[in-house]
Amino acid sequence: MAFSLLPKEERFFALFDGLAAHGVAAAKTFHELTRRWSCDSPLLERLHEIEQEADITTHEVKDRLDRSFITPYDREDIHALTSKLDDVVDIIQSASNRMRLYRLPSCRPEIVALADILHQAALAVARAVACLSDPSRKRRLLDHCIEINRLENEGDQALGAALGAVFADVQDPIAVIKWERICETLETAIDKCEDVAHVLESILVKNG
């Protein structure tokens, strides 16, 4: 009976898709949290659960990487892709933790706008990652990466607008610092989505 490498490769792709799905779930949940903000929202616990699920998937990828003789891509690329996908979830959960820690009485519209861009970027990441398992979708994958880059630029602009609004109408300097840190954390999460796109583009270049 012929030896097949396909099951191992399919499992890696399923794990990549799973990690990307965790990122979408975290971004969507955070967006909902900002629209209906409460320090006691059950969505905060849900974000913690998603972060734990992403960690489990990340560990599974790394464990499989250690045990697999043949992998679909270079090991360093698999490690980089896995780490960047996990970073997205970690930073979203960190943003929610900051908001709870600061005991914010309400959520500014600028935060909601950044959360919306982050959700769109996470969706684009998931669509790009889903193309990895099918070489015929290379062009589609690149299109998704371009969209991620566009959203990262939009995130930069939204961050500038958000900080301008905070500095203009918040009088308490401590409150300014709180909002600034939350805004910058969300922009970092969007940057991590772009990092995923860069890894994906590198994989395409290396693998034709």
Helices and strands in order:
Blueprint: H1 6-35, H2 42-67, H3 75-101, H4 109-130, H5 138-169, H6 173-207
Helix pairs in contact: 1-2, 1-3, 1-4, 2-3, 3-6, 4-5, 4-6, 5-6
3D structure, described in words:
The chain has 208 residues and is mostly helical. The chain has a single domain, classed as Phosphate transport system protein phou homolog 2, domain 2 (Methane Monooxygenase Hydroxylase, Chain G, domain 1), CATH 1.20.58. The chain has six helices and no strands. The N terminus is likely disordered.
- Low-confidence stretches at least 5 residues in length (pLDDT < 50)? 1-8
Shape: globular
Q: Strand share of the residues?
A: under 5%
CATH architecture label: Up-down Bundle
Helix count equals 6
Number of domains: 1
CATH domain fold name: Methane Monooxygenase Hydroxylase, Chain G, domain 1
User: How many β-strands, per DSSP?
Assistant: 0
The radius of gyration computed from the alpha-carbon positions, rounded to a whole number of angstroms, is 18 Å
| CATH class category name | Mainly Alpha
The end-to-end distance, rounded to whole angstroms, is 30 Å
Structural class: mainly alpha
What is the chain-wise order of helices and strands?
HHHHHH
Into which percent range does the helicity of residues fall?
A: over 70%
CATH superfamily: Phosphate transport system protein phou homolog 2, domain 2
